Amino acid sequence: MAVVRNGSPTEMVHRAIKALGGIERFVKPGDDVIIKPNLCSVVRPYEYAVYTNPEVVGALTALAVGAGAKRVRVMDYPFGPQGNKAYDQSGITEAVTKAGGQTEVMTGIKFQKVAIPDGRDLSEWPVYLDIVEADVVIDVPIAKHHNLARLTLGMKNLMGTVQNRNQLHRNLGQRIADITSLVRPTLTVVDAVRILMDHGPTGGNLDDVREANTIIASPDIVAADSYAATLFGLTGADVPAAAAGAKMGLGTTDLDAIKIAELSL
Amino acid sequence: MTKPKRTTSTRYVWWRRGRQVVQALALILFLYLLLNTTWRNVANLPHDIFFRLDPLAGVATMLASRRWIASLALGGLTLALALLAGRAWCGWLCPLGTLLDWVPSRRQKGTASAAKSPWRYGKYLVLLLVLGGALLGSLALIVLDPITLLFRAVTGAILPGLGEIANALQKWGYQFAWARPAINWFSQSGAGLVLGEQDLYLPNLTLLAALGGVLALNAIRPRFWCRSVCPLGGLLGLFASLARLRHNVDEQACIECGRCATVCPTAAIDPQTGYQADMAECVDCLDCAAECPTAAIAFRAQSAQSRQAEAQPATTAPGLNRRQFLVGVSLVGVSAVLVRFGQRALRAAKDTLDKWLRPPGTDTARLEERCIRCGACVQVCPTGLIQPNPSPDGEGLWTPTLVMRDAYCDYGCNLCGEACPTGAIPELVLAKKQETPLGVAVIDPARCLAWDHGQYCIVCEEMCPIPDKAIKIVDHKQPPGAGLPPVPLPEVTPDMCIGCGICEYQCPVEGEAAIQVLPRDPAT
């Protein structure tokens, strides 16, 4: 895992990926890459820390394109507004297009029931087919407060790849872990440039926003989420999804057990 | 006398061709502006230009609201055009008129009896009813305006209908691997994205039926709508009868073949009165001038008086004017009575109307006197929340209403006020709109997953866009149902709630949501 602090978003992404061994470790030439930011609800300016920093998404897109990916798509299914309106208003369209990638509107037709072989609570669920079929999925959540999930981080962000997600709230932590076991992102990059400490996930008070100026990157989604939890004064074990993920062997919440490259720019 | 030359007028054949091109372009422009009445383009284009040029919408709205509405003053241009060139609007620009030209009619166009048909006065009666209603403060009958009628049908029914069909086809086709590349391409294409967002609100099929009915009137006569029903045609006809540009027959050249009367789409030409056109009926299509085998017909500037003086001996049978006068007076009488009755019924219906939720900043009373039912707000609303009110009780028909469970008001959007051509929905800056209540969310504890079933579900709280959350968690209390484990329970703070309805939209309970936006009590 790499944790980089106090730089520009683009610079922090570059240094974090470099510390993990470079983008070539994750993206091979000819790969079909999907980058999944958390757009949540694009009704306020970026400063309110409701959706993933477009610069972070743009930097990752450029890296993937540079590594020779066949195509790099950025997509999310925010809960309001949807489609291009969210992409345009958040600045994602501009950042992604400039970096040589493309945005894709997640339309209802591509959600197909998929078996979740490792699921403990869910055995199948309608999932956006391309997410399952892509060679590489890069999960790019913003770190935010969330009443039911405690925090919304990398694992929770994958809820944007499935349908009927409001049906997941019963036993939410386990179900998020089940979906994580299906999607298994190649890389998780937590955008903690500005984080939302309260009234999440939709925010609206600048008082609730903290400038953490941090990028956390790891192929271990549970570990990345666990580190992000520490920014809120919590541990991975406090976040139900991460705890469930660790039990399923999707990663570890024990930050002492892994190597962490930390640098401040 | 020399034998008239047997040749059609090349000039008018070209003019007619030009008219057909203008018609097609105007219809394309109309649809283009409609399709761009969206979050992306509504501010960049004169999306409401057709409504603003519509003098009927302008006059009626100003009468009903008793105020000068500057944005609708452009309709004056169309009236001026009618004074200069007659009903050129109907023949050249009106998108509905163009469609009616394109809908085939097996019936012959003009005949001597059609030229005298009393049905043609119908449009003046309709006009009278529309304006009479407006004078009494109700725009209910503006639904008969041709421009809004077409826009509403396209945005409310045709686009969503096509969208539903396209979505169903894509969904079905997606099971075949070979079809997926094509479907993937289409779903991300411009047309695919527009259609993909569409959801048909079933009552809107009445909009389609209304348009279909208008087109079907062609079965009686071509452009029967324009001849006998259209109130805008009636208004323009009044001005057109004084038009400077007039149909003129060269009596020397005319061989009285009757071709002009036969091809006239509005039966404006009466063979029994020297083949002269009634300028209140003529839509300047120029078919007669282009078809005349001896090029005897021309359209040229003339004053109405000189034209009438010329025509007087041939056209008017004694007593006809008095009859017309009597018909007119009785029409006024009948419409006054109808409108009076209508008003009473409407007032009775008003109580039931207040149950409808309305777009931000407006209410039933304001809509009643300013809404022309055009559908611009319906088209621009990014979530499909705004739909034409299907209320069968008259007054509220097709005014914008909010259909909550299937959509919600986007917290970051204030486009309905921007799209509205009449100010029926006020333009609110975003910050103001974000504190303008549409209604208030109310939880039904008997259906709520948390309150009644002791389940973990606070989707409504999660979705609430109010900065300090109008839906709060009552922390892990024991829900009222006996023997249930403690779970987080949602609770609405009514003073903070603006009724955007995203909670109702996202509520995972099957069927009706366990949290619903209800109209606020006007007293509070």
Low-confidence stretches of chain B: 312-320
Number of strands of chain A: 12
Radius of gyration based on Cα positions of chain A? 16 Å
Structural class of chain A, please? alpha/beta
- What's the overall average pLDDT of chain B, rounded? 88
Could you give the count of β-strands of chain B? 10
Helix content of chain B: 40-55%
- Provide the gyration radius of chain B in Å: 28 Å
Low-confidence region ranges of chain A: none
Count of discrete alpha- or pi-helical segments spanning 4 or more residues of chain A: 9
* Number of continuous helical runs of chain B: 25
Tell me the helix content of chain A: 25-40%
| Main beta-sheet strand count, sense and barrel state of chain B | 2 strands, antiparallel
Oligomer: heterodimer
- Strand proportion of chain B: 5-15%
Estimate what percentage of residues of chain A fall within beta strands: 15-25%
**Overall 3D form of chain A:** globular
Dominant shape of chain B: elongated
Strand arrangement in the largest pleated sheet of chain B: 1-4
- The termini of chain B sit apart by 87 Å
- SSE string of chain A, helix = H, strand = E? EHEHEHHEEEHEEEHHEEHHE
